[in-house]
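We examine the record.

___
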Amino acid sequence: MEHEAQRSFRERCIELIDTHFSEAHVDHAWFARRLHVSRRHLARLFQGDRSVAERLAQRRLAQFVVAAALEPQTPLSTIAERSGYASYETLRSQSHRYLACSPHTARGLVVLNEMAMMQRRPQH
């Protein structure tokens, strides 16, 4: 039963991440308040797995990369803000941490990958 309750909390937290990632004020403490648990308890629920902060960072980064590729004329700082980043510097730091490249390079890599995939698709 305890294990089931932990899984339920984790699933609810992941749902909240997917729903609220684009809000810059959302962080680990915000999730704890929404779930009515302490920050420490929330951290223990994800122990041995990606933390809430990592999940949030990766969700924001995934959104940024997709939007940046789909909107090549939109400034990266605008897309970063819409993706939940309080600053472009935070995006840049997380891009280097998780993707090992700059946000600008990430945008280009996604576009190049999409072009390569289109070339491999069979023509009808």
Observations:
- The two ends are 54 Å apart (CA to CA).
